[in-house]
Structures are given as structure tokens and as C-alpha cells.
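Example S7 (C-alpha cells).
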């Protein structure tokens, strides 16, 4: 395993070259590090590379990158835990997982932890670049005016990521806040599963739309008086879902 260049040294080197936004690569395979570093630098990005989870977390906190490229099998802090920690600290930070693990259950888990996309090794450099830049563009979209909402006995503060039901705090994940906000911003409009996967999860295609259904079930269990007879997060059979305040 190669030694990590200090963040300060890396930044000085990249800034001297006039590079633009920074990409943080957390990957312990030296060959893959070189591939990713070359790919992003050729597109004008600055690249900071870390070989283990703890170094990746330290760099994440120090440089606030435009996006994070994250492997799952890492020393010190595994990728799943690192993703969860990063999203808890910076919910809107784009995180794209690049891993040899292709099981659907792993993809679903990472998306529920807040990962914006999941690319399986081996990958097409063009596809990975498109997905990373897509995630960055979504982050840079102007924020909508909705910062809070109330419906039923629920009060949601999206800016502070606080959810209350009947005055009691409810634990929502970063991704659940993101999904709920998309519904609120598109109140009364029927949203297809494919649109939700693209706009909320950041996927143009995905093995199964059950990902959306499973997340909707969890939201209903947390926010609806009766999750089997929802009043606000409604199913439109044959079409998708819609939110009714």
C-alpha cells in the first residue's frame, strides 16, 4: 500500500497547476488510484488520493471536495461506514461508490446510506465521469425555496434536518430527507419511480425500482398515522407516487 501524500502537499501541487474543482479519491489499490487520478486530471480536476478510510475522512474534512470517489473495501474505516459519516457531516456532498461488489443488496444499502451513485468495477471511464459530473451538477442546482413544511402531525425542517411527529423527534436518514423534500417540492404531482431514481438517487438506470418502493415503505412507517392507509405519501397505481399535504 502506498503512503498517502499529505493533504497540504497535494493541494499545493494541484493549485500550482491551476486545476479547478477537487475530487477526493479514497481507494487502496495503487493501480486503480492511478487510473482515477489520470482520468480526472485529464478533465481538469484537482485530485487528492487517500489509501485508507481514516485518511479519506481526514481529507474530506480538510478540503471539502466537489465529489468523493469511494471504494468499499478499505483499511481502518470500511467504505459503508465512511459513506455514512460523510453524508451525516455534509448531506449534499456527491459520493460515487466504485466497487467490485455488484450485489444488488449492497447497492441498495449504499443508496440508503446516502451514496449518490454506484459504479461496478470494471467500469467505463466515460460512464464514471458522466455520473460524477451529473452528481456535481445536481448539487450545484439552485436550492428551492422550501426549507420546511408541515402535514398531518408532522413538522419537517429540511435546513436543520429535523423531523417531528406529534412533537416527538423522528430519526430520518439524509436520503429520506432528500426524498421527502423532492416530494414536497413537487407536491400533488405524480412522480414516476424512474424519475425518483434519477433525481433523488442519481441513477439513469437501476436493476430494480423496488428500491423506491422500499424507501417509501420506510417513510410511511415513520410519518403516516397508518402506513397501510397513507394520507400524504400516496401510491398512484400504474404510475408512481405523489405527495398530498
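Recovered sequence:
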Amino acid at each position: 500500500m502506498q503512503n498517502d501524500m499529505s493533504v497540504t502537499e497535494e493541494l499545493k501541487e494541484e493549485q500550482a497547476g491551476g486545476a479547478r474543482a477537487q475530487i477526493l479519491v479514497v481507494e487502496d489499490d495503487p493501480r486503480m488510484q492511478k487510473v482515477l487520478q489520470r482520468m480526472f486530471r485529464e478533465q481538469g480536476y484537482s485530485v487528492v488520493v487517500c489509501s485508507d478510510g481514516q485518511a479519506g475522512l481526514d481529507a474530506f474534512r480538510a478540503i471539502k471536495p466537489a465529489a468523493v470517489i469511494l471504494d468499499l473495501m478499505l483499511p481502518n474505516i470500511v467504505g459503508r461506514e465512511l459513506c455514512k459519516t460523510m453524508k451525516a457531516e455534509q448531506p449534499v456532498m456527491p459520493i460515487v461508490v466504485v466497487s467490485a461488489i455488484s450485489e444488488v443488496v449492497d447497492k441498495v444499502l449504499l443508496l440508503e446510506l446516502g451514496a449518490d451513485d454506484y459504479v461496478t468495477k470494471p467500469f467505463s471511464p466515460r460512464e464514471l465521469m458522466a455520473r460524477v459530473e451529473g452528481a456535481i451538477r445536481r448539487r450545484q442546482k439552485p436550492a428551492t425555496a422550501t426549507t420546511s413544511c408541515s402535514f398531518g402531525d408532522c413538522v419537517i425542517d429540511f435546513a436543520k434536518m429535523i423531523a417531528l411527529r406529534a412533537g416527538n423527534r423522528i430519526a430520518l436518514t439524509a436520503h429520506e430527507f432528500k426524498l421527502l423534500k423532492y416530494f414536497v417540492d413537487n407536491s400533488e404531482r405524480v412522480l414516476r419511480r424512474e424519475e425518483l431514481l434519477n433525481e433523488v438517487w442519481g441513477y439513469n438506470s437501476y436493476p430494480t425500482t423496488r428500491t423506491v418502493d422500499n424507501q417509501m415503505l420506510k417513510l410511511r412507517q415513520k410519518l403516516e398515522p397508518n402506513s397501510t392507509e397513507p394520507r400524504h405519501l400516496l401510491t398512484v397505481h400504474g404510475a408512481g407516487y405523489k405527495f398530498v399535504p
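Notes on this example. The chain has nine helices and eleven strands.
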